[in-house]
Amino acid sequence: MANQKASIYSALAANLLIAITKFIAGAFSNSASMISEGIHSLVDTVNQLLLLFGLKRSKKPADALRPFGYGKELYFYSFIVSILIFGLGGGISIYQGIIHIANPEPLGNPTWNYVVLSLCVVFEGTSLIIAAKAFNKVRGQETWWNAIVKSKDPSSFLVLFEDGAAVLGLFIVMICLVLGHGLNIPELDGIASLLVGLLLVGVSLILARESRSLLLGEGISPASREKLVAITEQVPGVVKVLTVVSTYQSPEEVLLMLIVTFKDDLDTHQINEAIDHIQAEIRKEFKLIRFIIVQPEQYTRQFKF
């Protein structure tokens, strides 16, 4: 989590400085694509603040109103971030692009745009490298895409996607800017803004899908599920695990419910001891499983005649 915070703080500082310089350069050069890039960086700055706020809220201890804690706050604010990327970043950039394609304006001196874009590539690229290194430490042997899909910490892949989209957007703007001035085609400035907007919309849809899935509740992996069943069924007195229900309350907290059938000759005290044993064994193996509910239930065998 500390690594993820470091990547968020680095992205926050970079995006704030870059947004200011992009707006200044866009105003001097009369460039719609540069203004769109400034909006993109400003939205990214707000997104980092929301992620940091979500991380802080998710650490709030459980109370009577939220007995399982506030861990899902992070998932909620991650979903809000994806909506902001779609609405503010993508929507405004697409609007700016369409307006400037329909009514192209003469381009001003592009020198400052080139300077700012070059600096932004360095700053955004540095932030992307920091985010990639942080994510690389937690993905293990998984491929990048599988690690993103399986990740329960949206703050890790959100920053990665944002920085990646930022760097790609900068190259789109730079290419269109060079071609626009070289070929004297002012419409390319609007096209660059439109392409950046479409890029942000695509990124936001991916992030919204992943954040929505986490917000609705994702369970543990099939491999962990099988291991849980094996651990539980090795406890003396347990006959069979009938049902395993789990959900991530936060990237570091899992709620688990087991429906278990015990031997018929066990009394209430012995069943309670077996439940304590189950909980102790599971916590020993799975550090993230904080809440464990074990529900005894009668097991009815099906016989065929």
Automatic annotation (TrEMBL):
Keywords: Membrane, Transmembrane, Transmembrane helix, Transport. One of its GO terms (biological process) is zinc ion transport. One of its GO terms (molecular function) is monoatomic cation transmembrane transporter activity. Residues 10-216 form the Cation efflux protein transmembrane domain. The chain crosses the membrane at residues 7-28, 34-53, 74-95, 115-136, 157-184, 190-208. NCBIfam families: CDF. This is Cation transporter. It comes from Pedobacter lusitanus.
